[in-house]
Design brief:
By secondary structure, this protein is of the alpha+beta class. It is about 30% helix and about 30% strand. The chain has helices spanning about 35-45, 55-60, 115, 125-130, 185-195, 200-205, 240-255, 275-290, 300-315, 340-350; strands spanning about 5-10, 15-20, 25-30, 85-90, 95-105, 135-145, 150-155, 160-165, 175-180, 215-220, 225-230, 235, 260-265, 295, 320-330, 330-340. The strands form three sheets. Strands 2-1-4-5-6-7-8 form a seven-stranded antiparallel sheet, covered by helices on one side. A six-stranded mixed sheet has the order 9-13-14-3-15-16. Helix 5 packs across helix 7 (about 240-255), helix 7 packs parallel to helix 8 (about 275-290) and helix 9 packs across helix 10.
Amino acid sequence: MRYQSLIIENFRGISKLELSDLKRINLLVGRNNSGKTSVLEAIFLLSGMSNPQLPVNIHNFRDLILTNDDDFSFMFRNMNFESPIILSGQIDNRNRKLIITPLYVDYRPQQTKKQKNTEIVNSQDKYTASTNFVRLVEGIQLDCYNHTNQRFHGQISLKESKVTVPSPYKENLRCAYLNQKTIMFQIDKQMEGLLVQKKLDNVIAILKGIEPTITDIRMGAGGMIFVDIGSENLMPLNIMGDGMRRILAFLAALADMKNGVLLIDEIENGFHYASLKVAWKAILSTCKEYNVQLIATTHSLECIEALSDCYSENEPEGDDIRLFRIQKESENSKVIAATSQVLKTTIEKEFEIR
């Protein structure tokens, strides 16, 4: 399953943003605070629109802990609940939509008999008494619409510690979000999947491009992952370099997301520039093998160049990558798209593309 287009409205710092002609591999670039990470979060929410827990998760990804229902305003444009969040997209020629709104509860204090009999002596008291209620936010509502425009309703309330899941909606789209905090979350289970599929030899061959001494990968007790680099003892993966750990996490996540969508924030993190081409070669081939759509952000020109070079060498006539540059213009977001050929020409002419 693959996104073809996406529209984001009133989410985070985005008033309205549209992406069209998404391909298998998609890179989002732009200056800081242009909304790249917010786009990934919006896609994550839309992909799991039947899961009301995800609005909490995306804040945890940013190390933001929601303590009360008012904190859901962090998702809304200018932290204003009055403008509903609207996320819509097309996947395999089928539309889907998610609308997020606050869940309001009106509180009116109960008057005692004595209060009711008290004489109101001036007009100011009359006004106070006639408008004495408070409107509070006690959660958010998620209304999702499938390809037949059938509506499903869910809610989440922190105060009530309650989640209402849209029923009988069943999600068929698989999607995962990787950033610096989540990248190692489920790697042990994902590695077990590669082991069962007898795919570890392929992974080891790829990792040799980063660490030539590696000869084997082993699973230990408690989900520990060990690598054999020819030393007397196996080496825990957790003490290996960032590049080794990240490429292994990417490959494991891609295999686990077969026929789905993988979102990666700042995909270049942890890689030496000399390893980027190795990483992209592995990612491109794995995305194709498992039919996974990749949507990632980057700040790195070297990362963009490595993708362009690797794709040109392996698929010189291909058209399955897109680069989207996001620019903030006043209240609006402008998106400039580049095909693989345009990207290659832009790099050769040394134009700024980040």
